[in-house]
Design a protein that fits this description.
This protein is α+β, with helices and mostly antiparallel strands and about 220 residues long. It has a domain of about 130 residues: Nuclear Transport Factor 2, Chain: A (Roll), CATH 3.10.450. Helix content is about 55%, strand content about 25%. The protein contains 5 helices and 4 strands. The chain has a 4-stranded antiparallel β-sheet, with helices on one face. β2 and β3 form a beta hairpin. The longest helix is centred in the middle third of the chain and has 52 residues. The chain is elongated, with a radius of gyration of 57 Å.
């Protein structure tokens, strides 16, 4: 007995429904199965939240720190120190030179100021004014013009001064003080020579590169 068309259609629909039901059951069964866990998940505590990956920390490049920081700073410090030492050394050297120069000028100038001959006294003591500065030059000019030159010419007075010793009291590049020990021999006309010994505190100033006497005080 053959099936009718209606019966065949019904059988096909039932077969399709059965196949669809079977597929649905498979999907449901897969959904109910627990998800596979990794080994890391199994070992991590359940209550510990997952942490974000930390950025990789790079170590300090000490070679660059030294090259770009320490070495230039050290070089600057050394350069400044060297400059300071050079300045101190130059200053000390200049002061030593000032002492030497001022002592020599004080000795030579003292001899020139206190030495003269009656026939040359005008020229000698007038020229000596070039060794002086400030108010002391004015005082010396008055003294020689009013007293020394006229007296030397009238009484035929001659004087010879020597400086056996001189010592620096203080000195820098602008001012100096020198203690000068003076021996002076004076002859008046045909009289016997008379000798005197004295000490003088000589103050000097540097004017236009030259040491000039600014003060001359017996002590």
């Amino acid at each position: 007995m053959t099936d009718t068309p209606d019966e065949k259609s019904t059988a096909i629909e039932e077969a399709e429904l059965a196949e669809a039901s079977s597929a649905t059951d498979v999907v449901k069964a897969e959904a109910d199965e627990p998800a596979e866990t990794t080994e890391a998940d199994e070992t991590a505590p359940a209550d510990q939240p997952a942490t974000a990956p930390q950025p990789e920390r790079k170590g300090i490049d000490w070679a660059k720190v030294v090259a770009f920081g320490v070495i230039p700073a050290l070089a600057l410090i050394l350069a400044l120190a060297a400059g300071g030492l050079k300045f101190v050394d130059n200053s000390a050297s200049d002061d030593v030179n000032a002492r030497i120069e001022s002592v020599q000028v004080a000795k030579d100038s003292t001899v020139t100021l206190l030495s003269y001959q009656p026939d040359k006294v005008q020229q000698q003591l007038t020229d000596a004014q070039a060794l002086l500065t400030g108010s002391f030059r004015d005082e010396y000019t008055k003294l020689i013009n009013n007293v020394v030159i006229p007296g030397a010419q009238q009484k035929q007075i001659s004087a010879v001064a020597t400086v056996p010793r001189a010592a620096s009291v203080s000195a820098d590049q602008k001012k100096a003080v020198v203690l000068v020990f003076v021996n002076q021999t004076v002859v008046v006309g045909g009289d016997a020579p008379s000798a005197t010994a004295s000490s003088v505190r000589v103050e000097l100033e540097k004017v236009d590169g030259k040491w000039l006497i600014s003060k001359f005080e017996p002590v």
